[in-house]
Amino acid sequence: MTEKALRASRHVAAPPPAVFDLLATPARHPEIDASGTVLRSRTGGRLTGAGDVFVMEMHGRDMGDYLVDNHVVAFVEDREIEWAPATHGGDRGGQRWAHHLAPEGDGTRVTHVYDWSEVTLERLLPYLPVVDADGLAATLDRLAAAVEG
């Protein structure tokens, strides 16, 4: 069976609360997105817990402009945040994006996970995975630059 999840990890020279605050603020997600697909948030403010939904404006080479409803499925302040994208006003596609944080020395060990193991929508399958391991690592590099500066 083929693995249907990717992960990347790195040290970030900032404390877990600073890293988590960035991840819990959808308006800042375009700063860290290395794919160039995340354009802007339509949701103001900071996320507060599992069950929150934030809407993002996206652009894909094959799909053009579209909206995504991201359902927060895990939220442990300063430790873990995970969301499951869905078509705007529609079904979750089975993908999940997670960030796990752990104190490490003078900063934080951040592990970024992209999991598409639960995708069942046939129309999504040709586009998966939407990122590779290098893309996850590049996003972590951008996250580090955003919180370390």
Keywords:
7 strands, seven-stranded antiparallel β-sheet
What would you note in describing this structure?
The chain has 149 residues and is an alpha+beta fold. It has helices at 16-23, 29-32, 133-148; strands at residues 5-12, 38-41, 53-60, 64-76, 80-87, 96-104, 107-115. Strands 1-7-6-5-4-3-2 form a seven-stranded antiparallel beta sheet, with helices on one face. The longest helix is centred in the last third of the chain and has 16 residues, at 133-148. The model has no long low-confidence stretch (mean pLDDT 94).
Helicity level, as a percent range? 10-25%
Q: Could you state the order of secondary-structure elements as H and E? A: EHHEEEEEEH
Main pleated-sheet profile = 7 strands, antiparallel
Instruction: Outline the low-pLDDT stretches.
Output: none
Mean pLDDT: 94
Q: How much β-strand is present in the residues? A: 35-45%
SSE-based structural type: alpha+beta
Return Rg in Å: 15 Å
**In order across it, which strands form the biggest sheet?**
1-7-6-5-4-3-2
The number of strands is 7
Number of continuous helical runs? 3
